[in-house]
Write a structure and sequence with these properties.
This protein has a domain at about 60-220 and about 300-390: Alpha/Beta hydrolase fold, catalytic domain (Rossmann fold, 3-Layer(aba) Sandwich), CATH 3.40.50.1820. By secondary structure, it is an alpha/beta fold. The protein is built from 17 helices and 8 strands. Helix content is about 50%, strand content about 10%. It has helices at about 5-25, 25-35, 40-55, 85-95, 120-125, 155-170, 185-195, 195-205, 225-245, 245-255, 260-270, 275-290, 290-305, 330-340, 355-360, 360-375, 390; strands spanning about 60-65, 75-80, 105, 130-135, 175-180, 205-210, 320-325, 345-350.
Length: about 400
């Protein structure tokens, strides 16, 4: 008797799971050693302690909601310029003049939230107007309406570009804009430019692409053997769909294998060996909080992403292209390719940096963003890195 489609899907899921397990063995090895030496209850208590004491992700602003063109509710927060901000602090950052009325808009990456910009938000808070938003189905934003129900359609990077425009129309309806995007957030900015080039020319005065890509993500090896990656890549979309259809069961499994996933998250988020454990746990919490059905809905969009043709829209603007030199998710070569298409862009490759470079090396990223604001004419003078950029 022929194999049913559902049985076949789950069998492929089993094969892919085994393949992924083999490929991830190197990352998991360190976790296995830890499990032999540190009891599970001790690790759980350590996580709770880090969750309770870590100051990361606790910054909140004035909340608002925008409505995407398919009815999805998009959550954002605004940090306004403080009318009476400490004069010494303002002079130290911007000189004697006041900042220009610019809004800096931060877009986060896949399986993250607006809180991933914690250090940069802390550094700029009250000094320039900033907007932080959660992409659809992430953080406090609503589940994508187009991705729900019997007529559900896959999410696309183009859709995210339209979402960003919806947020900008409500949260920053006038004045100059500096757009900052990490990973999927950078792709979102590219999609905005492709669909609304005149809007970008009229409103945007600076752009920062952090650990992102303009395309060819299907060629990324994630630091693993090519043959294994290609095998997994062929079946992974179907596997994720199958897992997404059993979200409750899968979420229980994720909780049961939290130690293994913590090791994998650290491997693919950070490159340095001395990352603050509270920062690593903060990243882990954000990624863990993304439901498996959201992971499944977004994953196919990256293979289809190709926005190199949109980049010339930014050619006349100050641009920062920054990546960690050991980014396994969107390798620094992808950032170099962006800079090649934007010859006047400032290219920065951060040593010992992974995919979450803005959390791993916050001072380096904040410093370059401050320089971008100067080049964009948003603030006068030279902006030094501030000590509080790490402490929040």
């Amino acid at each position: 008797m022929g194999e049913s489609s559902s049985t076949g899907t789950w069998r492929r899921a089993g094969f892919a799971g085994a393949a992924i397990g083999v490929l991830a063995a190197g990352a998991a090895a360190g976790v296995a050693v830890e499990r032999l030496t540190v009891g599970r209850s001790v690790r759980q208590k350590a996580r709770l302690a880090l969750d309770a004491t870590g100051p990361y992700g606790g910054l909140r602003g004035t909340s608002g909601r925008a409505l995407a063109d398919d009815g999805t509710v998009l959550y954002y927060e605004v940090d306004e310029v403080e009318a009476d901000a400490a004069p010494a602090r303002r002079r130290r950052l911007f000189g004697r003049k006041e900042p220009a009325p610019v809004t800096v808009v931060f877009s986060h990456g896949y399986c993250l939230t607006q809180d991933s910009w914690h250090f940069q938000r802390a550094a700029l808070r009250g000094l320039v107007r900033t907007v932080h938003w959660d992409q659809r189905s992430h953080g406090r934003s609503g589940q994508g309406v187009s991705q729900s129900g019997p007529d559900a359609v896959p999410v696309t990077i183009d859709r995210l570009g339209r979402d960003l425009r919806s947020v900008l129309d409500v949260a920053a309806p006038e004045g100059p804009l500096v757009l900052v995007g990490h990973s999927m957030g950078g792709m979102t900015i590219m999609a905005l430019a492709e669909r609304y080039p005149e809007f970008v020319r009229d409103r945007v005065v600076g752009v920062a692409f952090v650990g992102t890509s303009a395309g060819k993500l299907g060629e990324v090896s994630y630091g693993l053997p090519i043959a294994g990656v290609n095998a997994v890549r062929r079946v992974l979309p179907g596997v994720l769909r199958a897992l997404g259809s059993q979200a409750e069961l899968v979420e229980r499994g994720r909780r049961a294998t939290a130690d293994l996933f913590a090791g994998l998250i650290k491997k693919y988020s950070f490159a340095s060996k001395d990352v603050d454990p509270a920062v690593a746990r903060f990243a882990e919490r954000m990624i863990e909080s993304t439901p498996i059905d959201v992971v499944a809905a977004f994953y196919p969009a990256f293979a289809e992403h190709d926005k190199a043709a949109a980049l010339p829209v930014f050619r006349e603007l100050p641009v920062l292209a920054l990546a960690g030199d050991h980014d396994l998710v969107t390798p620094s070569s992808h950032t170099e390719a962006i800079a090649d298409l934007l010859p006047d862009a400032e290219l920065v490759i951060v040593p010992d940096g992974g995919h979450l470079v803005m959390l791993e090396h916050p001072e380096a990223v904040t410093d370059r963003l401050a320089d971008l604001l100067v080049r964009a004419g948003a603030v006068p003078g030279t902006v030094p890195v501030r000590p509080e950029s790490r402490n929040g």
